[in-house]
Amino acid sequence: MAKKTADPKVTALTLVERATSLQVTTQADAEEVGAVLKLIKEAKTKIEEMFGPQVKAAYAAWQTSLEQKNNFTKPLDNAEKQLKSKLSDYQLRVEEETAAAKLAMESCTEEGSFCPAPYIENEKGSVAGIAATADIEVTVTDTKKFLAAVVKGAIKIDLDRLIEVKVGVIKQFVKATGIRNIPGVTIKDKKTFAVKG
Questions:
Q1: In whole angstroms, what is the distance from residue 40 CA to residue 154 CA?
Q2: Are residues 173 and 83 in the same domain?
Q3: 185 assigned to some structural domain
Q4: In a structure prediction context, what are the per-residue pLDDT tens digits for the chain, which is 197 residues long?
Q5: In which domain, by residue range, is 184 found?
Q6: CA proximity to 10, closest of 35, 32, 39, 38
């Protein structure tokens, strides 16, 4: 009679329940945790054997489909980007010309002087079926100067919203220098564990 293998789903749920209930206060508890960690590793290996080939095949098919799709969409994306940039340049030029013509009309107010009316075509620059949104493009050319201005208060920007702190960079700094007293940062020791075998 063939040996019946346990259902991986049942095994996984049982191990999760067991792990949740374990407390580590004695050496015996630590040994039990070690045994459960080994069982978890075995269960994950069986689950990988069960689903791994399907996942790899699906991923390979997805990659192939994505690559084929990108062969068509990437050139279209590039063409779209170029055309939108050209349209933006044109519309900004039209807005500048319109503003200059209006300014010329406003400055031509002397009585008796001849002021030809500038030709301002309504809706010039707009394109049917294309929506235009005014926006700005920002490029930080000198990060240190910009941050110094923010810190000095010359620019009122919320630092918490502006800066995404990369904890990994701080971690590397602490490990390399041994400096652990950093204002605004809490550093505590921790252990990570790997199951052998």
A1: 56
A2: no
A3: yes
A4: 555 667 877 888 899 999 999 999 999 999 999 999 999 999 999 999 999 999 999 999 999 999 999 999 999 999 999 999 999 888 888 888 888 877 777 776 655 555 655 555 555 667 778 877 777 888 999 989 988 888 888 888 888 888 888 999 999 999 999 999 999 999 999 988 888 87
A5: 141-189
A6: 39
